Prior knowledge:
This protein has helices at about 30-35, 45-55, 65-70, 70-80, 105-110, 120-130, 150-160, 170-180, 205-215, 225-240, 255, 265-275, 280, 285-295, 325-339, and strands spanning about 5-10, 15-20, 25, 300-305, 320-325. The protein is built from 15 helices and 5 strands. The chain has a domain at about 1-45.
Amino acid sequence: MAIAGEVVIRRSVLLRNFVLNGQESASNPLLHLLASVGVHAKKNRTSIQINVAMKIDKEKNNQSLVELYDTDIESIIDKRYHNGADLWTTEDKRIYKGAPFSTLESLLMLIELETNSAIPIIKDATELILSLWRTDGRFQVSPKGAIYPCHTANVARVLCRLGYASDERLVKTFDHLLEIQHDDGGWRCNTFKFGRGEETVFSNPGTTLAVLDAFRYTKWLNTDNRLNKAVESLLNHWETRKPMGPCHYGIGKLFMQVEYPFFRYNLFFYVYVLSFYERAKKDKRFIDALNTLKSKMDKGKIIVENPNRKIANLKFCKKGEPSELATKRYTEIIENLKQ
Length: 339
């Protein structure tokens, strides 16, 4: 019989939740001990991991973001099984399934909430994602489905946020992305769900933005003309605003509504990513987009206009209310422009 254990350190207490043949073992003496003091391992796994994640600056007597948004973190972690398996995935390890509580999006939210990446659930989810890497640099996000550049780009940007930009696997992924760059400078997926037309010969702006979000962590940032070409393709889209690429990414009313966190092609995400690229910073099209974003602020705060409806009541991205964390991203944009 195979036995596996998960270790969680909470202050000076060491807790181990044993799993027997894929199930928690009720006969395990440690679980009996926990039960005797009114703590059931599975029920309390979320609160234990949040306690591990809390980082309180005792000298300054400030609350950490993890403590301020602990209910949001708990809500996200509580969804870890909702797709049928652990770590927000399906039984066949589809990490894109179940938005906004897919593996990728859940990790992105936890990162945005500055949850300690050393806690077991984030480490395990990261290892799951890395296990889907292929030697050609792509990521197999589902066992049988096609592999599209948008999949690889979004996986890469999440892993970069987790500190893997210099990992040899990610370096190969970046090489792959540069190899498949489209003629107009962006990236595209060769699938035509909306049919073929004159607009489908171009790259997908949404995929291109995700790629540039990943590349901002790399040595290629502001040193490679191929990325300048990608930036130019997005700046051109600000002018045309037409649906572009096989997936018909356009700039319209929905794009202009401030979304947070950064899940998809949107005004806020667009301005944030481009603010890292010198090619964009002084361009009048970028400045116009930035001013549009500024016009939507209230008393210096970013107001979240269109979050995913399933997370619209979470404190860090509540619909129609100012978001401290979104405003922090806006401040980062301004700091980028000063450099």
